[in-house]
Request: fold
Amino acid sequence: MKHVLFVDDEQRILDGLRRMFRPMREEWHAVFAPSGQAALDELAKAHFDVVVTDMRMPGMDGVQLLSEVRKRYPSVVRIVLTGQSDRETTLRSLGQTHQCLSKPCDPDELKRTVMRAVALRELLVNESIRSLVAGMQSLPSVPTIYNALLSEIESPKSSMESVANIISQDIGMTGKVLQLVNSAFFGLPKAITNPAQAISLLGLDTVKALVLGIHVFSAYRGAQGSHFQIEALWKHSLATGKLARMIVEQEHGLPNVADSACTAGLLHDVGVMVLAANIPEYAGDILQSAKLPGTNLSDVERERLGATHAEVGAYLLGLWGLGDSIVEAVAFHHAPTQCLNRTFGPLTAVHVANGLVREDLTGKEESLPPRVNDDYLRALGLADRLPRWRELYRRSLEMEVAHD
Ligand SMILES: [Fe+2]
Ligand SMILES: [Fe+2]
Reply:
């Protein structure tokens, strides 16, 4: 049984929602509250999986309510329904909400969004990590990229292209702009997976407001005793994204598949960042012990935390409303055979790219367990392609050296 709380000060809207969810009462337990305070009272009485609230309400508004929910019940999924005139408030609500849907809302869209949010919870069984991820307002950025963005934005000559170029290099910034642009609030028909396209849709003024006014981005500050190096993760992620795009292009995939693969490659290890930035034991002991010969990070994570960085990252990006193909690629990048989808796509490209980029970093692939899963490639009928993709990567590295 899924427990959903709807909050709206207009009785007419609550009645509409009640009618909409009545046929699903076997699986869904829906409760309706006429104000923010009434919603908090309901939350104090019973457990809810999802809260869907109106933005403009007398007394406590939607943003105030959701920020309270975030503090008191961080694992609850927070969705806001908002009108076009509330653009400014919607931007300000970014840290408190997981997703924004536009009003009047399409019943199917609402059902789909709530169902997807609830289904995602199954990815992460550990309740305390689920709370941690759902409570995250933003992701830290690589300090040099963050500073480059600040000086670009403050420069009188800043342009959309240069800003987009900087943002699309950074894991945290890319995740956040995609969350914003994919909220149904912007009414865009298709899932946007390319950060540069996201920025041109948002416009330079909105991006400036996000950075300077609302401070949605921040530079990562490493803690003492931490074995987490954001620059190293970033280089690995960028290389994975680039190679994933090249693999899709070599296989004549559609441009939107190449965009998704590239973005999923950039974001695939975002879970490492989430865990390292929030759990001191992870940045210290867990990352350290995963480096010992014969161990692998996912096994250590599973044993010590009951969740892997792949699951954590996929859960975060799913909550933020990023497209299924990206969430799937992130969730299964180390275990692609666990994914039910058996066609070539972003997951294939990211899994292979991550494996090949790691091979190169260690430089001793013979002694390590194979990083690219042959069974998976065989199931897709692509086992013979791996040498070509390895060659593609090798050539791209040579080109980079030649350009330096
Ligand atoms: Fe990974
Ligand atoms: Fe990786």
Summary: The longest strand covers residues 2-7. The chain has a mean pLDDT of 89. Residues 236, 240, 268-269, 354 surround fe (ii) ion (ligand 2) (CB under 6 Å).
